[in-house]
Amino acid sequence: MRIVGPVREVIIRPAKRAYRPEETVSFWILALDHDLQIASGTIGTISVKDPQGTKVAIWDQVSFDKGVLAYTLPLSPYALTGRWTITVEVEQSQFFCTYEVAPGIGIGQPDISVAEEHYVELKFGTEMRRRYKPGLPFSGKVEAMSTEKSVRVRVKVYDNTTSIYSQDIEISNGEGTFLVPAIMADSDFIHLQAELVSVESKEIESHYVLAREPIRKWNSSSDCYLLIEGVEHTLQPEEEAYVTILSTCPCERDVHYVITTDGRITDWAPRGHEQIVPLDRPSMEPGPTCKLHFSFQVQSVMAPVSQLLVYYVTPQGEPISDVISFGVKLFDKRVSLHIENREWWLPYQSVDLKVIAEPSSLVCLLGGRSEAASDLRFDPRISEEPTPSPITEEVDFLEAGVSYFQRECSRRGDSGMSAISYRQRGSGAGPSGQKRRPPESLVGGSPYDHLWMWTCFNYSSNSSSTEL
Questions:
Q1: Is the pTM of this model over 0.85?
Q2: CA atoms of 152 and 129, how far apart (whole Å)
Q3: Dihedral sign computed on CA atoms, order 262, 263, 264, 266
Q4: Close Cβ partners of 121 (under 8 Å, ≥ 6 residues apart)
Q5: Within 10 Å of residue 309's Cβ, how many Cβ atoms?
Q6: What parts of the chain have a pLDDT lower than 50?
Q7: How confident is the model over 65-91, as pLDDT tens digits?
Q8: How far is CA 6 from CA 9, 35, 44, 340, in A?
Q9: Which residues make beta-bridge pairs with 312?
Q10: Which UniProt keywords apply (predicted)?
């Protein structure tokens, strides 16, 4: 059992990431509770440390009830150069953000935007599964950052050096999903590859390999597998998500699901499956023998990434399970933003914005900027996990942040009742030598290097215009 505090996330945003001595550091802080609302009734401490770890400023007994809090800290002419840290402490939790102090920062030439004919950046979705189960389908997602509206990508699956599957997908709204009907490989690793095929419906002569990803084989002593399908794309709050469960064994068992977010259970259901759809497939042939269907309602508290765990327990006490991560995008269609149609603005020039929202709602306007130097180039020979270590234990429960432990089961045999203890293979700390990923920030997926707060206001039909 994990005890969580009243605050889920504290967003810390300095006005910029680098300062010179004698400049004034400006930053703002927003604390959110587990329902993604302003954390009310919460007190914390804010401090700023220099590169030597000395606290040069402390704000004690800070109340986060008012939402966005703004702070400033003037730097002396003798401020230490290096990395400074802003720390927010709430009960037993700490949240950090850093910025640099250096004498020459801000003196150089201004950033110059570089325009290219085509700019496309591809990667496989961070919440996509990185393991495959032999004989079962494999679902994945490709994410794209592009200056073009229409991008077509070819996804290939390699077993060693042999291509065993290929599919073209269209990228819309920054992402596209693909489905490999069944992976009949039996290698410890297979590899996914994403190639850029066409831009704006124009075929590219030389296909560019922009992303590669190793996929590890699922190793288990069980002859039964579960596989989750249906939540590969990014979901939105209040959406009804429809899930399909494939099983390689008959579906007489009651199947349960648990949804966890940052290690907390945000939804669960003890009910069994609602509908069984048998497949016309000989039992001796590999693949699913039945399908289960169920649905759940997506909640905003599940953002930005949650894990869906589906499982059942055999009479011998062995859990058969699968887990998949899915993204939730906090986007409210009832709020819209319109900006005047101009190609560029001069420094200190006013920007005219039109915001449409429901009355009595709190509206905050954020600004963002990408550094020209952050124009990433992917090397197809480099992977996010260049030397992944093999895992031979079931870790579905651990990936979902749930520790399965059944202390004692009773069974009746020829000699009467007997008690047997069972435990999920693995431990709550995760596989040996591996660390669990830190919780994902609510704004962690932002492509901007610099974010800043413009203004916040309570919206009503009588709201007056504000210059930015």
A1: no
A2: 22
A3: positive
A4: 144, 145, 146, 210, 376, 378
A5: 26
A6: 105-107, 109-116, 273, 275-284, 372-393, 409, 419-436, 468
A7: 888 889 999 998 888 888 899 999 998
A8: 9, 10, 11, 40
A9: 320
A10: Signal, Thioester bond
